[in-house]
Amino acid sequence: MPLVKSQDDIGEQLVRAVRDQSMQILDHDIIVVAQKIVSKAEGRVVDLQTVTPSTLANTIAESSEKDPKHVEVILRESANIIRMRGAHIIVETRHGFVCANAGVDRSNAGNGDLAVLLPIDPDRAAQKLRKRIRELAGVDVGVIISDTFGRAWRNGQVNVAIGIDGLTPIIDYRGSRDLFGNQLKVTQIAIADELASAAELVMRKSDGVPVAIIRGIAYAKGSGSVQQLIRPKEEDLFR
Amino acid sequence: MPLVKSQDDIGEQLVRAVRDQSMQILDHDIIVVAQKIVSKAEGRVVDLQTVTPSTLANTIAESSEKDPKHVEVILRESANIIRMRGAHIIVETRHGFVCANAGVDRSNAGNGDLAVLLPIDPDRAAQKLRKRIRELAGVDVGVIISDTFGRAWRNGQVNVAIGIDGLTPIIDYRGSRDLFGNQLKVTQIAIADELASAAELVMRKSDGVPVAIIRGIAYAKGSGSVQQLIRPKEEDLFR
Fold first, then answer.
1. ipTM score of the complex?
2. What is the pTM of this model?
3. Structural domains in chain B, sorted by start
């Protein structure tokens, strides 16, 4: 893939990159795309020099030892602050994701004064990309836009789905029976997140590989939305 | 793999099952093994008929609409209760994992009166298995014992590592530079959890496939421990 700029047609770039490597995209493949190139194509990049921090941003910046302009951008992307301590700012984004820094990232952005925000509507971005791949390559695929999020209780980040099209993100085994014919209890597997994590194993953040193709996996086609992966506030025990 | 019973040598069963399928285990493969067969081989199965619930277990059972004997076993496996609401009991296990029901599972246990507990020391179980595979197949692999855990904020469970040997569970990119030569900020990827999630895509809980082999992934060999994946209490914002 080339380095992505605002207004780029990443569907076209992706299909061409696959062809240039003498490969092809097949029906039923899952295409996992790093959030960063989707955001860049959407122009979701902010020059921090142009940002004027609010009083709140300045206060938070002081206690978190972050750049006030960076904090200001994080706050603009946030619906709620969930926790703050030390350098950690965990928020609920406008999309409903609970993550650090509202997903605002300063690395790989081109230079140190730029911040990349999450896509405006990652599901819609996934829909657009799926449609474009169908137009250009004639195949029906599942698309996952992914980002690396930290977790409660566990060290390290993992790749998760932040936008989806063409697949059902959760496999619901409730009501199924196990090997012994007993009903399975609570068993809903977040397959979209597992697919995103699997993809990260070959994407590797600092290598600049923004797309992975997963082939040979059984999944349920469907329109699907990342909203199905977000636990409703009223059922959430950890905010 | 055959159905696993107490005292079974799952290393031997695994190596034989691979041979029976005319395949082989290779150096540098990652072997992901479902917790349930490790627990069964360790005899970590409790007949709930033999359990006498404490007063606390009875009280919790009432508000959570769970079987008091099941709750009693959960409490015995727990170091701390982190949250309780409705049917949800989120605890810290004796190993330090934060998960629902202390990982105590009533499905696939043979019949409805049995509960399967997490292995006593999953890292040690991984070490044992790795050693056995080296003895029987002459290869050096990474071993991950996995279980499906729920997450804060997101619906659905994903497979994570609960025991490790032969690999470093976290890749630390801090200090690395991105495509533009900027230093990456916080970037530690929990590769062991991503590998466990990738494996789940072919293990599929109700299919009774308890082992997956991952081949062709670059990872850092090392003694590694699942403790590296557990965030220390004092750094954790969500308990």
1. 0.95
2. 0.95
3. 1-42+119-230 (3.30.1330.100), 45-117 (3.90.1660.10)
